[in-house]
Structures are given as structure tokens and as C-alpha cells.
Amino acid sequence: MLRPLSSRPLIVFLLLALPLSHVFATHFRAGEITARRLSLSSPTYEIKLTGYFDMIGGIGAAQAQNDVVFTINSTDGTGDPEFVTAPRIPPIVDIGNNTTQNVYIAIYTFRTAGAYRISVEEDARNDNVLNIGPKPTNRLNFYVSTTLEINAAFGLNRTPVLRNAPIDIAAVGQRYIHNPAAFDADGDSIAYRMFVPQQAGTNGRGINLEYQDPNTVTPPGQTETGASPATFSINRVTGDIIWDAPVTKGYYNVAFIVEEWRDGALIGQIVRDMQIIVEDARNDRPVLTPLQDICVEAGTLINQKVVATDKNGDKLTLTSASGLYDATLITPPLATFNVANQGAQGSVTGTFTWQTSCDHIRLGSYNVLFKVEDGPPPTYPNPSLFMKLADMTSFNIRVYGPKPTGLTGTAVTDPGGTAYRLNWDAYKCQIPNAKIVIYRAEKCTEIEEDVCEPGIPAGSGYEEIGRVDVNQTTYLDNNGGEGLRPGVSYSYRIAVIFPRPGASPGDPGYLIGGGKSLASAEYCLNLPMAMPVITNVTVDSTSTIRGQITVKWIRPAVTTGVPAQYKLFRATGQNGSAFTEIASINTNLTPGAADTLFVDKGLNTEANAYNYKLEYYTTVNGQLTKFDETETASSVRLEQGAAPSNQVGLKWTALVPWDNGNRVHRVYREDKTKPGTFNRIAEVSVTGPQTFTYVDDGKDKYAADGTVDVSIVKDSTYCYKVETVGSYNNSQIRPSVLYNFSQILCVSSSDTTKPCPPVLSLDPLNCDSLRAHPEAFCTTSGFTNHLTWEYPAELDGRECDPLVTAYRVYYARYEGDAPTLIATVTTPPSPLQTSFDHEGLTSFAGCYFVTAVNRFGSESAPSNTVCRDNCPMFVLPNVFTPNGDNKNDTFQPLECPAFVQSLEFKVYNRWGAQVYSTKDVNINWDGKTNGGKALAAGQYYYEVTIYFESFTKQGTETSMKGWVQLLR
């Protein structure tokens, strides 16, 4: 029944006409309002007040409360409130501890979509409540409210329901716990926070009472275990309200909010106002053994033992509360809880049983509350005076989807190129609107399976490439019509995502909150090699004019388009990019033909490394047409590295498409008694992908070809070469292990002529000048760091070698990374240049050091390392207009955000509820929630945590808070 605004004063008048003893009857102990939507075609809801009445003065007050009146108004205060009478639904239930439970239900259709407050007020609270005011407390009315978001996109949404009644007694000096056992049938997330108890104001609004934390009404004492001070708190995740432990007996009132979250937005909140009665107790509370949360596959039968004990030997009653016992909240089969020895003294054991099914899969956990209450033993002299105490523990169950099985693949012909048809077994859980998600990685990839975090773990290397309905068993991967790359080992896995309980595809974010399956076993495949692959770039001889390198490759496995042709290109330097064609080789891809090798002669392999690539041409319509080109592969370059006195340091690099890391490389030294003969002296286990090192102390550490030790002495020359060992780790490429020699390097050991490290500096940045011209940040490249250094004449009392022939500049993008050689400064010859411009940068941030190299090729220790940060810039506007006119429709940074590595942006409405979040560095907020709901015009508040690009990997963290006006 609706009551117009003008009828509300009449209700007040009638109340005032009642006897004073009825107006200030002390009966309302606790309560909360819940709601559920009944129709998709109209915003019609069932609204329920669950009230708990104190029967210390008799049951009459509970019986006299035949109905309550809900006040309904918009949360922004616009429009007139409406009043709805809700009759009591029989029966009145005695739930123990001198408390009855009354339920009042009304059916109401909201006028329009939006945010509403539903409240109820009733006179009066209990008298002599210690922590609220003003006094006397029996003149304060009882008031609770629930905030509800009415939105058709939420489907038949239901607020959480609180399954555990707030009736338990607290004892002085003992730990008290209350948990509401909140259960959300729609799978929405639940969070908890304390709230100040209220009384009714105008138009259904609440007014905060004078409130004091119960733990501070009198000076807090100790906890139950003797720690100091006592504590009172709520766990935001579990909802446990724990007072450990009260000091003073009496009445206390507290309130807390149960928040309902979906898709990052707060869509509702329930206030439970409750009374805690603290008494002196002569007995000790019982204790429940804590339970570990579990994660189970749908279809698992759960049998969980629950044990409660009482050191006084009191009679025990063990019960459980959860939505899992209610067919209106979950799809059967329902859970059961049985206690074979209910009422036993000292110890009881219960068994929680639940046969899970596919219908129970969801993202969040199911909460089950267990409660034990003691009672007087048979010999207790006056059972009516026994003070019953309780303990509670929660048990969370997460139900995930079964792992998909039978994933395989078959190569098929596709207009875009190579494609694979994936197939798998029919999935066990055919939940309507569930989706099978297909993931791919570009190598055979192991993942760590965690049943409590189903799906594909972040950072695993897999990316989603498609979705199909759950009843499908096949998917064609043609890489978006472009075909898959030849010669790549592709790894596939599939997983299933499920809709939120009760959701339909028309609901935005209907797959959010529905849960996931475990990922399938991996199916890894190798596509046929349609391109040649370079396998060797090995130095055969070292000379300034007669050097020689052998380049090898393998034929394609796909033999279409013949006759074909290879074109081999060479560039000077390992990073060389000025390629020149050096050979054209025709082929019919005939097995055994000598068409996969080229010997490159007349090179200066003493001074230079060389870089190679291969282009492949096939016959198309009678014409040779370029098909593709290989990745580049360089020769191995050996150089002298740092070493102590009377030792020789070596280091080598190779920039190649195969993997030289995690292998054993071979080091050879020339036997001076047999010029031109090299003896293997060491096998070096290497890890990093490019640069490898070894220090020769003269000992031959490889005995298989004979042991040839030498004494390394100052200014003597020793000659070396190394052989790298690598692999593509691809079964189609043979040989699987690839061997490549470096050039021969002859160096000397000298502790008197070793060059000293230079002293490096960087020109300072003028950030103020840069920020004055923000357009300079709109480019993604073109920044320059100017380095200068000085070479010392002596260091630590030792003369520095003055005959420096070059400086080497090293750069690392992040502090702690392995530095990369970016320049060798050798000109002009006299004096040497002592500066360098690092150009074309996308960021100023990075770290540098410089080394000096003498005439023997000996390199100094690194100079001081100098690291530089950026000049970050990030400015946000304070208004935007997402009205679809393509002008200022999105909220994004002004000008060009400079050097933003990552960010997390959150938006809140004026009630503090989060309505939007993103990690997009340009934000691009369109005025909607993450679920696609358009937000009303108004002022919103944001928090943004920005990590600016820095010389540290984690970036420089900066936090900003502000407001923005959303206009429509």
C-alpha cells in the first residue's frame, strides 16, 4: 500500500496519542532491510525487514508490531518520499537468548531507475545503552536503511541476505564474535565496514547518533589471551566483528554496512544495526576448531568435519548458517549439516555435506558459518541462570569449472596462409551462455596450475585469440585472416568462463562474477617451415684481407613455388644494417643439393664482425617473387675483457635468432709450441642471451685433448678463439645443436698499462623549460642525452695508460640491467673525442658508464655510473561532456602525458562509491561504469596512481587526487 506524503504526520499524531508506556516500549534489538527484484519488465521489488525483538519485558512488544512502514526516496534527495506499509509475515519465531525474529514484507514498484534509500524507523531502543546518545536511549528510535541501485542491466538482482541472527551474548573478559553470514545469490562481491548507528531524520534520512566505540566506553582492558589493549574491529573481507574483550557489562549498540559490488561499482549497501549485551559469565565460551578454505571442481562431493569443544564440559549445540541451505538462493542440490551427538557435553562433531554441480560454478566463494553455543550441563544447579556463550568460524568454498579435455589440432589450408583447426571434447558443464576461451602462445609453455585461481594466469605468455559457445568443440585459428607464421612452435590452451548466476547475455558484464574452469592441457604444434632459417655464421679464418665466414641455412619444408631462389646479404658489424647482396643461389629444393651453404671470402675478420640475412623468392605466375626474409644472424665476436694481473679476460657476443644461452661454450688457446694449433682449455656454462665471459689463468681445464698449461706473464701475447653452442629449440630445425666459431683474438696481459676508468657526467635537464613547451612531449622519439667525460692521468697513485685508443659507451635502460655497448668513440685520432650524444631516445631515463681501451685492446673498469630520470608531465582537466557530439566526450590528460609507464585510475561518486577504474595511460573515460552504465551528470572524484618512466624498473610513483565535473 502506498501512503502519500501528507499522510505521514498522521502516523506521528497517532503515535503521540498512544500511552507513553507503548511509545517508549523497549523491544527493537536489531534489524536490516533486504530486497530482490521480481520482474525484468518493471522495477518491482520485494522489500523485507528482518527485525529482532528483545523479550526481556515479555513477547507482547513483538506481537504488537503488526506492520512497519518503509520510507523510499532517491539518494540525491530529489522528489517526494513514498511510504509503503509492510505487514508482518507469521509466525513470530523465538530464536533464543530472549529474542524473537519478526519478518515484514512489502511489494513495491519503483518510479524510475536510479539510486534509492529504503529506510524504516520504530520507537524505541532499549534504555541504558552505554555507547550511544543522547540519553536516555529509550527516547531514541531504531532506524536502519538500505541503498539500492535500480538498473535494468542488473537483471533480477538481489541484495545479499544475512543468514546469522545477531543474538549472542558477550562475556566480560572473553572474546566475542559476530558474523552476519552474508550470502549473495547473484555472485556479487561483498565487503564490510563499520557504520555509526542512526535515528530517523526528515524524508527518510538518517541522523548519526552520539556514538562511541564500545571498546572505549571504559578504559580497555586485555584480550582474552592477556594481550593489551583489548580490541574491537570488523574484517572488511570476512565480516567478522570481534571484540576481544569487553570490560564492562551492559548494553552496547553498533552498526555495520554490507556492501554489494559488481563490475567495480557499488550497487547496493545494507545497514545492520545490532545490540551487543555484555554480561558477567561464570563459564568459559566454547571453541570451534578453525577450518581451511577449499577450492573444488564442480561435481565434487564435500564432506567437512566441524569440531567444537568446551573446557568446562558444558552441553553444546552446533549449528550452521549459509545460503547453501536455501533453494531460493542457489540451484539444488543443497548442502546439509548434521550433528550426530548434538547436545553432548564437552565436544560435538558435525558434518557439512554438499554435492556440488556445474550450476554452482562462480567467481566468488560460498560462505558457510558454523556456530557453537554452550548450555548448562545436567548437574547445573539452576539452568535458567546459565549464561549461554558462543563461538563462530567461517568456511569458504570456491567451485571452479572442470578442465576441458582432448585439445588437438590439424593444419588446414586457408586463404590467408597457414591455419590450424583446433578440436576438443564436448565440455562437461553445459551452462547456458558460458563461453570457451581459446588462448595461444608462441612457444611450448608450461603454466603453474592453481585450483583456487582457475583460468590462465597473468604473465604466462598466453593471449586470448577467440571465444566460442560452450557447446562448440572446434575453432579455426588463422591469425585473424593473416595466417600463422611458419617455423613457430604454437601452444594452445582453452578454458571456460561462466555467466554470473541469474545473468543473461543482455546484462553488461554478465560473464563477470560467473567463475572459470581450469585451463586445459597444452597442445603444442610446429607449423611446417615455409621459409629457410639461418643456422650458422662461423668464422673459418682470421685475417685483415683474407678472412672467411661460412653461412648455412636449412631448406623450407614447404616445397610449393619452385623453382626458388635464395639471396644472401651482408652488413659490417654485429648490429650492421647497411646490407649488400653477396650471393644469389637458385634452387628446386632438391634434397642433397649443395644450395644451403655459402663461404664468404676476402673479409677483414680481424677488425670486424659481420651480420647476415637471407631473402627467399618463390615462383608466382612464372615470376620469381619475394616470399619473405629471415631474421639477421651475426658472427661471433671475441674481445678482451677485464682480468686480474697475469690473467687474460675474454668476452664474446653473437646476435643471432637462435638461443646461445643456457649452454656450454668452448674456449680455445693457441699452443705456442705448435703455431696455428688451438687446444681447448675450458668449457664455459653460460646463461645470458648475448654476452659471455671467461678469465684465463693459464690452466688448461679441459683434459680430453691433452693438457697444455702456460704461465701468463706481463706483455706476452696469447691467442684465443671461442666456439658458441646454441639451438632454436625447434624439432623441425636440424641439426638441433648449432656450433659457431669466433675470429682469433691475440691479446696481452699487462698490469702496468691497463687504462683507468674515465669520469662521466651528463648535461642536466631543464624540466621547467621543457614543461613550458608541452608540445615537445607529443613526439615519441627525438630526445637526446649529452654525455661528457674526462680521462685521469693517475688513479690511486698509479699512472694511467696514456695511450688510449678508444672509449666505449654503455647504456642500460634500467638500473641493474646488463649494460649494452651503444658506441665506440675513436675519432678524431688526436686528441680522442670525450663526448657523445645519445640520440633518438623515447625517454631521457637510463644509466650510462664509459670505459677506456688501450692499444692492446685492454678495457678499463667502468667509469662511475650516471643515471637520469625524466621530466614527467601529467595534467587532467576538471570538466568533460560525454554527450556524443565528438567534442570533449572522454576524460583524458591535457596535452601529451609525458613518460607515463603505467597508471591506475579510479573514479568515485559523491557517496564514495567507486564507479569506474582503468589502467589505460590515456584514461579515455566515457562517463560510464566499467559495465557500460551511463553515469548521471554531476561532480565525481578521482584518484590516480601514476608510475612515470624512470631509470628504475618499478618507475617513479606519484599519486594525484582531484575532481571532475561530468556534464551532459
TrEMBL record:
Among Pfam families, the record links this protein to:
CHU_C
Q: Please give the InterPro entries that the UniProt record associates with this protein.
A: FN3_sf, Ig-like_fold, T9SS_type_B
The protein depicted here goes by the name Gliding motility-associated C-terminal domain-containing protein
Q: Which organism is it from?
A: Dyadobacter soli
The opening ranks of the lineage are:
Bacteria, Pseudomonadati, Bacteroidota, Cytophagia, Cytophagales
